[in-house]
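Long-time lurker. I teach an intro course on protein structure, and each term I like to show students one example going from raw sequence to a predicted 3D structure in token notation. This year I'd like something fresh instead of my usual example. Would anyone be willing to generate the tokens for the chain below so I can use it in lecture? Attribution to the forum is fine with me.
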Amino acid sequence: MKPVEVIKDVYMIGDSGMTDSKDCSVYLIDVGELILIDTGAGDSVDKIVKNISVFGLNPERLSTIILTHCHIDHVGGAEELRKRFNARIIMHEKDADVVERGDKRMTAAYWYGVDFKPLSVDIKIKTREEKLIFGDHEVVCIHTPGHTPGSISVYTDINDKRVLFGQDIHGPFLPDFGANMSDWKRSMEALLALQADILCEGHFGIFRSKEAVNDYIERYLEEYG
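-- Reply from a regular --
Happy to contribute to a lecture. Here you go:
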């Protein structure tokens, strides 16, 4: 699998079939600065950096890493990428606590056989909605608990499309991870209200119309009732 241009200035540069079998889907937004949505499990950092360059982008412009939740397949490469590019790490405070104490159970590092070290977080989101400003461009982080207490989803309006990064909105929903189905249902209703044109999902690919995005979310709402 090769890196994918989702639309102009939005790219998928990592995935379990692209960079490493342990990786989630890793996305990149170019707003002058480069913003990374999740990082994979850690072994594929070199490939992820190389895939940034595939699109003629300079990895040195990476300024921000947004981590959508605390699981190792999403956060494992964050520290190495911060070291290389001096990028700031952003995540919700409720999952930041998990990575900062290096919790191998709550991060699922023990599932993946990854030796996860404590990861400090530069900016902790504490509100339901946090707007990040990059020049004249806005990237919005929304607290969408359910999969984990500190899960967030990210969206941005870019090139006439609303692109939603809804990592792991499908679950799983396990007590070990602090899952809460009532919270999750409310989170999914909030995402449906966004009327996104494109969904960049954490493991199941890219959905490219409002109808496809809504159908995807509503299918899980129906399944988990």
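Some talking points for your students: The radius of gyration is 16 Å. DSSP finds seven helices and 13 strands in the chain.
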